[in-house]
Amino acid sequence: MNNLSIRYADTDRHGDALTASREAVALFRGTPPVDPDHLSGLTHATSNLTLRLARLDHRSEVPALADETLRLVARLSAPHPRSRLAGLADSLTWLAWYLRKEGHLLRARSVARAARSLRRRLAA
């Protein structure tokens, strides 16, 4: 569902992207974390949901979800080969820009710091 939400967003179907993102997060939250990629998937899905909400100007929901995304990023262990953390770092960079634009300067700084940290981990 998370990949579907990305494809919808790529084709300017932002309402469908938001619906798919909400469903992806709900599926990850409702699934026991037995797969090593579970936390990475939940983190990416939560980040994408935050971006979808921002894109559709659901401003009131964005800060709390950004905080949740940061908590999830902090729990990520060393990058798993299939975890696509580079995409997550890109999403966080965009989210930091949005938060800064909306006046959430401290959150924006924290999100940008998390993106830089992920990029360093990937480069190591």
The portion of residues forming beta strands comes to under 5%
| Helix/strand/pairing category | mainly alpha
Low-confidence stretches: none
**Main sheet makeup:** none
List how many beta strands DSSP finds: 0
How widely separated are the two ends?
30 Å
Number of helical regions: 6
Estimated helix fraction: over 70%
Q: How would you state the average pLDDT, rounded?
A: 90
Give, in order, the helices and strands: HHHHHH
**Computed CA radius of gyration, to the nearest angstrom:** 14 Å
Note down, in words, how this protein is organized.
The chain has 124 residues and is mainly α. It has one domain: Serine Threonine Protein Phosphatase 5, Tetratricopeptide repeat. 76% of the residues lie in helices and 0% in strands. It contains six helices and no strands. The longest helix has 19 residues. The termini are far apart. The mean pLDDT is 90.
